[in-house]
Design brief:
The complex is a heterodimer of chains A (298) and B (464). Chain A has 298 residues and is an alpha/beta fold. Helix content of chain A is 52%, strand content 14%. The chains are: A alpha/beta (298), B alpha/beta (464).
Chain lengths: 298, 464
């Protein structure tokens, strides 16, 4: 199943909601626009972006004489797709590469790390996992289970040890063994904790300094996150200079609209989206597909 | 762009300020802003609509308090409405009296913080004199049981893992175990699940039917967006929980979801979870939450945090300071106090209007200033710290060199110390007797309790 189908499946509810708008007698009146704005806000796109998108679509409709629902829908999908920043490089494909996963607690960093290791293995790449979440209870064990599942090598240290030392060690190992891909899981932390953000900045700096392969720092964000997601992304970006985003848990009824705002405001590309529990449900991101699924285009 | 609700409301009410009366147009304008602001705080849009409509009606008909400006009246009405909606009473855990063991079950989405909340709840109950047992019923996520076991051993609560394959078997096994080991409460930690995952939802129902919990608590991430409504209504329908634990409230999310949960399911928020430490589970206060959503400053929060930071020894220190004067070591202590409470930015941000102050100050109000002062003090000798008056030109030069700052900065620091020391002298006179009489000591203790160990903070003479 492709990403488009998956997303469509996952986003059925929002699509139905938008279909309601678009089929409302087909008449495009003031209520239609107001309702449309509300719906976009409901999808966690953020009031500001929603207003901007609606206004633009409105102008475009007048300019190009778009009066029918399908044409408006197509225009809207394109309009939303335009909001996304595009990736210059896919750090999971373009190897050798080292990727650090960062984010708040419970976003899905460890799971994403584990799944991507499985992918790399299937693609015939040598991958090494680094368990730099030395803080959370059993985070190391959790990643070890993933490593075992995919038959990937993993570098661990005892709980409570310096995460930067794990990064150092995993990079040394990767170099001596000629690995293609290094994936490093870090401890979840709230962006409002200056101490923990400083610690993470140190981990990232050590990795960037030590690594001979290009290092990417990727923010993992939960699709159910609301407007605070933008704060999160801003703070993490400021502290660590992010390279991209992975959006997880898009398989529920959450629309992941915050991804539009983050990608738009910070110019960060979305590298992968998680649309289900299985390993191959972590897919590459296609802005137009995502937007189409969001606005309910067939 | 408005960053927070308080900015937005502030801007709206700045516009309204100075008018003797509000017209309907004014109120409409204010309500529009409130609507947008609530949406940005992640309150569900349907809830927002209902809320704004009822607020508007109240504003049009409410008795206007003469002592308040029209804008203040609107704020008061909005705040009252919000508090009422969040639940007017503090709700606590309800456990059957004649059942042993009592059972509490936790449910929620993946990553909402169930396992952590289970451990915190166990810690809370243990401190209340109960003997809880944790049941590791998350048999899906790798190493979830290990996580619970580690957390359990940290707080001294046993964990039942069973065969680790069947959630229902683990849950029922835990109850037998609790009976054997005289535990009076079993806390059942379940796997995270999506509300649309039929199989997993059925598992939760099966566990529920097997152990018949006294209380089912749903753990909800404070950062959840609009989808929270779908999630909680589905969980409410299928599993029928009794209350909510809001997690990750130590972040800067406004937590508008709390309002949506309350409005959509009618279920109370029982606890809020504020951080990583086991003691960071707190009883929910609707009034504080309302203020947080409206960005009106968590004044209670700051007082509590200050009280936590100000331990008994600090009060003794304060007395000594009054008797013997204020040393550089004391100043260093104060800097560390501020750090302990989460840094200057966080503290100012929690005060009413603090957001605005932070914005005005731009980058000036960061903690690097504290770091600089710490560096300078640490470059002083022990003697210099105790008697800063000794620091002459040569010593200043050495301190500047040692801390990597300029001599001017050292001068400034010494000047600040002088001012603070003078203030201490004044206080000493105020409490006459210098801490010799019991009354004076009490007075001083109260004063310092009130100031929460912030020492010279209240004087407005701190260097930032």
């Amino acid at each position: 199943m492709g990403m488009f189908d998956r997303l469509k499946e996952g986003l059925t509810r929002s699509r139905e909601a938008l279909n309601e708008v678009f089929y409302m007698g087909g008449e495009v009146d003031e209520d239609f626009w107001e309702d449309l704005e509300d719906r976009l806000v409901m999808g966690d796109m953020g009031a500001e972006v929603a207003m901007q998108v609606t206004d633009d679509l409105r102008e475009q409709a007048a300019r190009e004489g778009l009066t029918t629902a399908p044409r408006l829908r197509d225009a809207l999908a394109r309009r939303i797709a335009d909001e996304f920043a595009t990736a210059e490089r896919d750090p999971f494909d373009d190897t050798p590469s080292c990727v650090l996963f960062v984010g708040i607690n419970g976003a899905g960093k460890t799971t994403t790390c584990g799944k991507l290791a499985g992918f790399a293995k299937d693609a015939g790449k040598t991958c090494i996992l680094g368990a730099a979440d030395t803080f959370r209870a059993a985070a190391i064990e959790q990643l070890e289970v993933w490593a075992e599942r995919s038959g990937t090598e993993i570098v661990t240290r005892d709980r409570g040890s310096d995460p930067a030392s794990v990064c150092y060690e995993v990079l040394e190992r990767a170099e001596s063994e000629g690995a293609d891909l290094v994936l490093i899981d870090t401890a979840g932390r709230l962006h409002t904790s200056p101490e923990l953000m400083r610690e993470l900045a140190k981990v990232v700096n050590v990795t960037r300094k030590r690594s001979e392969m290009p290092v990417s720092v990727v923010l993992v964000i939960d699709a159910t996150t609301g407007q605070n997601g933008l704060n999160q992304a801003k703070e993490f970006n400021e502290a660590l200079d992010l390279d991209g985003i992975v959006v997880t848990k898009l398989d529920g009824t959450a629309k992941g609209g915050i991804a539009v705002a983050i990608s738009h405001d910070l110019g960060l590309p979305i590298l992968r989206v998680g649309v289900g529990e299985a390993i191959d449900d972590l897919q590459t991101f296609d802005a137009l597909d995502f937007s189409r699924a969001l606005v309910g285009e067939e | 762009m408005f960053n927070s609700l308080s900015d937005r409301l502030g801007a709206t009410f700045d516009k309204l300020r100075g008018k003797g009366r509000l017209t309907e147009d004014d109120i409409n304008l204010a309500m529009r802003e409130i609507r947008m602001a609530l949406l940005e705080a992640d309150v569900n849009y349907r809830v927002v609509k209902g809320f704004v409509a009822s607020c508007k009606e109240k504003c049009m008909t409410a008795e206007v308090l003469e002592s308040l400006t029209p804008a203040q009246n609107v704020v008061r009405i909005v705040l009252d409405e919000l508090t009422a909606l969040l639940g007017t009473t503090e709700s606590k855990l309800v456990l059957a009296q004649n059942r042993t063991p009592n059972v509490i079950m936790l449910v929620g989405l993946q990553g909402s913080g169930k396992t952590t909340a289970s451990a915190k709840l166990a810690y809370l109950l243990k401190n209340q004199g109960h003997s809880p047992l944790l049941a590791a019923c998350d048999v899906h996520r790798p190493a979830a049981a290990d996580q619970l076991e580690t957390l359990g051993s940290e707080i001294g609560v046993s964990v039942f893992r069973g065969d680790g394959k069947d959630a229902v078997a683990v849950a029922t096994g835990a109850i037998d175990e609790a009976v054997d080991h005289l535990n009076d409460i079993v806390i059942v930690d379940t796997a995270g699940r999506l509300q649309i995952d039929e199989e997993m939802m059925q598992e939760a129902v099966d566990v529920k039917n097997a152990v018949k919990p006294d209380q089912i608590l749903m753990v909800v991430d404070a950062m959840t967006g609009q989808d929270i409504v779908n999630v909680v209504s589905e969980f409410s329908e299928r599993v029928d929980f009794d209350g909510v634990i809001m997690s990750k409230l130590d972040g800067d999310a406004r937590g508008g979801g709390a309002l949506s949960v309350r409005e959509v399911t009618g279920k109370p928020i029982k606890f809020v979870s504020m951080g990583e430490k086991p003691d960071s589970l707190e009883v929910f206060h609707p009034d504080r939450m309302a203020k947080r959503i409206l960005g009106m400053g968590d004044v209670y929060g700051i007082i509590e945090q200050a009280q936590k930071a100000a331990e008994a020894s600090d009060i003794e220190n304060a007395e000594r300071m009054l008797r013997e004067g204020f040393t550089m070591d004391d100043m260093l202590d104060q800097m560390q106090q501020v750090r302990k409470m989460g840094g200057l930015k966080k503290m100012v941000g929690m005060l009413p209007g603090g957001d605005k102050m932070l914005e005005q100050a731009g980058g000036a109000m960061d903690d690097s200033q504290i770091t600089r002062i710490e560096a300078m003090i640490r470059s002083m000798t022990k003697e210099e710290r105790l008697k800063p008056k000794k620091i002459n030109g040569q010593r200043r030069k050495r301190i500047a060199k040692g801390s990597g700052r300029s001599v001017q900065e050292v001068n400034q620091l010494l000047k600040q110390w002088g001012e603070m020391n003078k203030m201490m002298g004044k206080m000493r006179q105020m409490t006459a007797g210098g801490g010799n009489s019991k009354k004076a000591r009490r007075q001083m203790q109260n004063m310092f309790k009130g100031m929460g160990g912030m020492g010279g903070f209240g004087g407005g003479k701190m260097p930032f």
